[in-house]
UniProtKB/TrEMBL annotation:
Name of the protein described by the UniProt record: SAP domain-containing protein
UniProt xrefs under InterPro entries: SAP_dom, SAP_dom_sf
Region (Disordered): 109-161
Source organism superkingdom: Eukaryota
Biased composition (Basic and acidic residues): 109-154
Domain named SAP: residues: 7-41
Length: 161
């Protein structure tokens, strides 16, 4: 049985070598490098889970016994499962961060709307206060005039008595 070396079996240095071959950014943690390489390979039409990376790394197959093959298979399965879980968690974190960015943007937008509405309402209140102040002044003048007229009538009545 021939063993293959997939990207999930590679060390960080080897991942960087394959990224360099493709002219891609080779900075970041292992999970980031793995995701970047996986995406690039998928775009190339390769299946990262099945592609033997020895072809590009010029790695010769080492001799193995059935026992070491079995151990290596179990280790690969565990590491692959862990990597997939980490990748899923990473994807979920990215989605959560995107959602949080959207919520922050929505919060900022709503804050702006609230500020605009407060300014608009403040302007309306000021206009209404001016209008009511004018009405009150007019009513005071009218009432003052009536009081003066009534005072004049009372004075006339007093004089006629």
């Amino acid at each position: 049985m021939e063993n293959i070396i997939t990207i999930f079996d590679l060390k960080t240095l080897e991942l960087k070598q394959l990224l360099e071959i493709r002219g891609l950014d080779k900075t970041g943690i292992k999970l980031t490098l793995l995701n970047r390489l996986k995406e690039a390979m998928e775009k190339e039409g390769k299946f990262p889970e099945q592609y033997d990376c020895r072809i590009e790394l010029n790695v010769e197959e080492k001799e193995t016994t059935p026992a070491t093959e079995e151990v290596e298979t179990v280790v690969k399965e565990v590491l692959s499962a862990e990597t997939h879980t980490k990748m899923e968690m990473n994807d979920q974190l990215i989605m959560l961060l995107d959602y949080m960015k959207g919520m922050k943007e929505e919060q900022r937008r709503m804050g702006t709307k609230i500020e605009e509405e407060q300014r608009r309402m403040g302007t309306k209140i000021e206009e209404e206060q001016r209008r009511m102040g004018t009405k009150i002044e007019e009513e005071q003048k009218r009432m003052g005039t009536k009081i003066e007229e009534m005072g004049t009538k009372i004075e006339k009545k007093k004089k006629t008595r």
